[in-house]
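Cast an eye over my tokenised protein here and flag anything odd:

===
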Amino acid sequence: MNMTSDAVMSCLENVIDPELGINVVDLGLIYNIKIEQGKISVDMTLTTPGCPMAGMIAGSVEQEIRKTFEDADVEVSLVWDPPWSPDLLSPSAKEQLGYNR
């Protein structure tokens, strides 16, 4: 698979937030993907800075990228700016969480 931002986003749809049951892409947790000389860097956030699952979710993001792009160097950074808000949810996630009602 080619190392593109779209391909990385596609593989990250397999990473499910264990508390919400929705993937990190639809939750709007992936802010930035940078691909440069065989290295994939991802900036991501969480719905709250105090999330007890932070390490597990970030680790799952890194693991999924490594599984998909075996030869890549991978770096995942948790960032808090801009803060996450429900506006970042995909239409599907909004529907699942009842934001469209």
